[in-house]
Amino acid sequence: MHCPFCRHPDSRVIDSRTSDDGLSIRRRRQCPECGRRFSTVETASLTVVKRSGVAEPFSREKVAAGVRKACQGRPVTEDDLAMLAQQVEETLRGTGASQLETNDIGLAILGPLRELDEVAYLRFASVYQAFDSLEDFEASIAQLRADHGRA
Q1: Does the UniProt entry include the keyword Transmembrane helix (predicted)?
Q2: Do 30 and 95 share a domain, yes or no?
Q3: Average pLDDT score, the chain
Q4: Which domain, by its residues, includes 34?
Q5: How many CB atoms lie within 10 A of CB 130?
Q6: In angstroms, rounded to a whole number, what is the distance separating the alpha carbons of residues 96 and 99?
Q7: How many structural domains are present in the chain?
Q8: Hey, CA dihedral for 151, 115, 83, 55, is it positive or negative?
Q9: Are residues 99 and 26 in the same domain?
Q10: 142 sits in which H/E element
Q11: Tens of pLDDT along 89-127?
Q12: Whether the model pTM is above 0.85
């Protein structure tokens, strides 16, 4: 780790602590050259492989933005979307995979979104699962009703 003050190519770790519910590590470092201290935050990277084959880092913001469209006009707050995005990320990290396909992310969104708002779930699922007809909607609604009957 380069020192941000003198650009020395090495530093010494003084203290390490987990943060962000264990998803990252905050390290306090000291430069052996200039003696100044600085902090770093380390996280395990999640890479998303898009349908086009392009790889990019996972983004909670993109998850929230995608779900936000389905939640327009619904009683869903920005905090709800942030919690959903965090829950999706935790689920994906729990798989142990470092590379994910966009399909994996969509599947991880469906469960928490269904719990958050069923109408938003239907909207998201209709696009994500490419509903082609009214029968697709009817089947999904029938499944929601059956699940409510069991609960």
Answers
A1: no
A2: no
A3: 92
A4: 12-43
A5: 8
A6: 9
A7: 2
A8: positive
A9: no
A10: helix 134-150
A11: 999 988 888 999 998 999 999 999 999 999 999 999 998
A12: no
